[in-house]
Design brief:
By secondary structure, the chain is an alpha/beta fold. It contains nine helices and twelve strands. The chain is about 30% helix and about 15% strand. Helix 1 packs across helix 6, helix 3 runs parallel beside helix 6 and helix 8 packs parallel to helix 9. The longest helix has 16 residues.
Length: about 350
């Protein structure tokens, strides 16, 4: 079972930092590393291994940023990122392609404070839960001043849509609408990948002569988009589409012989992405679930001390994924030792 060494530039202590990746220097090191350690081009791989990194961005992964996923330990996403980098470096010659999702928002979205007003015409505080009863009673109502900037039809009833949206969330038994702090703001530092992870992905691409794939999600103003494969709500109150499935990405993911998944947060974007992928697998062929590996030590649930702890729902969902045939594994174990890994 071959394990590649960690490159000299990798420093676990820097994973918590924001820094500029020295691309030209790293490119030279990656080419030299590939020659020294006989790393072959990715196109030769058999089996083909995809690594899906979900929202490994500063906004979720670094303390002090807007929605840091501390998990039960308070250091969750930082340690997850360290292990993710180590996994990619130690399996440099085995991972065929990295696919990274990027949560991508602006201020005027349904889960941000600007979208809502309370009875005193004030935006709600971050982490406020907005229920159907809240909207029906007018405890919270949509900010109608946003309607034109959202590009809506002149006859679009934003009040009716807001009630439809929160009711839909309740009917499909997903999490209720949470007003999150402004986060993953497009063009901002929080939107960027964690620098050490970006560096590892770049190094891998040069060493293996392959191209990473980046998937932006979450820019549609009228719906949340936890899963990269589809928004939370697909139709408006008039049964017209407001979002669509990412069928192209689904096809790409299912073409890999092995699909490894890590990222943030275990209770939200990871859980719903995996749930949507599993639904498609079960529709096509339930045996395909066995090719999906979830690195449980490279993801953490949302825990806001004194406010909410999503650890139990996250563990329950991962248990359901395992029961359906997916494999829950540790990044530190040799990849060939994972159950069912193809020879």
């Amino acid at each position: 079972m071959r394990v590649w060494p960690l490159p000299r530039h990798f420093d676990p202590a820097r994973v918590e930092s924001v820094y500029r990746v020295a691309y030209q220097e790293r490119a030279g090191e990656a080419r030299a590393f590939a020659l020294e350690h006989r790393v072959t081009p990715a196109w030769r791989d058999a089996p083909r291994v995809g690594l899906l990194l979900i929202d490994v961005q500063n906004t979720f992964c670094l303390p002090g940023f807007e929605l840091f996923v501390g998990g039960p330990s308070g250091k969750g996403a930082v340690l997850d990122s360290v292990r993710t980098c180590e996994f990619l470096y130690r399996n440099l010659g085995r991972v065929t392609q990295v696919l990274a999702t990027l949560d991508t928002h602006d201020a005027a979205q349904i889960f941000h404070p600007l979208f809502w007003l309370d009875a005193q015409d004030r935006p709600p505080q971050p982490h406020t839960v907005v229920s159907a009863a809240d909207v029906e009673s007018r405890r919270f109502r949509p900010n109608l001043a946003l309607a034109r900037s959202l590009g809506l039809d002149e006859d679009f009833d934003l009040d009716a849509y807001a009630l439809h949206y929160v009711k839909t969330l309740e009917q499909v038994a997903k999490y209720p609408l949470v007003v999150w702090p402004y986060h993953a703001m497009v063009g901002g530092i929080g939107h960027a990948l964690v620098a050490a992870v970006e560096e590892a992905v770049f190094f891998h691409g040069v060493a293996r002569a392959t191209r990473a794939r980046y998937e932006l999600k979450g820019s549609r103003p009228l719906t949340e988009h936890y899963s990269v494969l589809r928004p939370e709500v697909l139709l408006d109150h008039r049964s017209r589409p407001i979002g669509e499935r990412n069928d192209a990405l689904i096809e790409t993911l299912l073409r890999f012989d092995v699909l490894v998944i890590a990222g943030q947060a275990m209770s939200h974007c990871v859980a719903w992405t995996v749930a949507d992928l599993l639904a498609e697998i079960q529709r096509r062929d339930p045996r395909l679930a066995a090719k999906v590996y979830l690195m449980a030590d490279c993801t953490s649930p949302v825990v806001i001390p004194g406010v909410v702890d999503f650890s139990e729902p996250a563990d329950r969902m991962f248990g359901e994924f395992a029961a359906a045939g997916m494999r829950v594994v540790s990044s530190s174990d040799p990849i060939e030792s994972w159950p069912g890994f193809p020879a």
